[in-house]
Amino acid sequence: QVQLVESGGGLVQAGGSLRLSCTASGRAFSTYAMAWFRQAPGKERDFVAAISRSGGTSVCADSVKGRFTISRDNAKNTVYLQMNSLRPEDTAVYYCAAHGSAYYGGDDPLKYQYWGQGTQVTVSS
Questions:
Q1: pLDDT tens figures, 63-98
Q2: How far apart are CA 84 and CA 112, in angstroms?
Q3: Which are the contacts of 120, defined by CB distance < 8 A and separation ≥ 6?
Q4: Backbone phi, psi, residue 110, to 5°
Q5: Nearest-angstrom CA–CA distance, 17 and 96
Q6: Distance in angstroms (rounded) separating the CA atoms of residues 54 and 60
Q7: Residue 89, exposed/middle/buried by CB under 10 A (0-12, 13-18, 19+)?
Q8: What angle do CA 107, 29, 8 make, to 5 degrees?
């Protein structure tokens, strides 16, 4: 079992930026593929971005490509989501997720074993 804790959410004006952090407590953070998902009220949980164990492979959803960047610092047991040019439609609870048995976890939330509690991101127009 790995424990994940997100931070960095908040209220921001459209066009602004936020950086989310997810810190993991576990035996070896570098063995986990990581991802970010988001969920708005009444909607399904959607893929945002994913990164491989080593950080050598990363993928962003089309809706955030060019605006969001996922990265990780294995020495700090932390994965980041840098969010720029935020839009009101980015408003959601953002969740960090970990996959313990794959190099890269992909975009299906059902494939991830561990989840953080979420952090709220609200973008005003």
A1: 999 999 999 999 999 999 999 999 999 999 999 999
A2: 26
A3: 9, 10, 93, 94
A4: -70, -15
A5: 18
A6: 16
A7: exposed
A8: 70
